[in-house]
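Hey, I'm writing a tutorial for new members on how sequence and structure tokens pair up, and I'd like a real worked example in the thread rather than a made-up one. If someone can provide the structure for the chain below, I'll link this post from the tutorial.
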Amino acid sequence: MPSKYVPKLLSQEAIDKLKGSAKENAQRNRGLAVDEELKILLPRLREQIKDFPDLQYNQSCIIPPWIDEGVSVIRNEAYGKVPLDFAEEGFEEEEGKAFEDREYSDCYVDSLAAEFARRAKAFHLPPGFVDFVIRVLEAALHHGRDLPGAAFQQKQELVEYLAELKAGSGTYREPPKPKGKPGPKPKTPQIPDHAEGKSYVTYSPEAKPDHSGVRDDMPLDFRNWK
């Protein structure tokens, strides 16, 4: 009985040198191979993350679970998806396509990786998670290798954090202390006698913010989050 065909897996550097259908097939094979690795890795991580519920889940429903952030970064790199920074007009037409068939990333990988690292720094994570963080950061940096200069959000911070993790520093980082001395206590505003009621600002509980420009299907982007 003939043995099952196993496609040859190439490194990303070797794939980048290919062209046409050969490159597409090699890239897809690499992505599928990573998916198989994740099938083995993720059950262990999802079991261990139960000890860190504040890491895995954020109070904001906008931010995905921490492990899913890392998986998204890894898969976008493995499948060689084009960064959204290079997306041309009309790329929204890919909405609804299977991830494997998309040309562009389904998120801003650089900003997602920065958010992923920020959350990891708040915890003393065990070795298995340290390895996972290293893999995610390596994938993010490789995925954004062609982004020009400042287009890669917080790149230098990720490079330094990755180097420290590989040197055995652990994931936790002390939160930065506020810079400078506190300023003087603000004075209570004085309302001129002649102003009467015109100096008061009224508040309407019926007023609601305008979310007309926000869509649920927008790619996740943490670039301007503070």
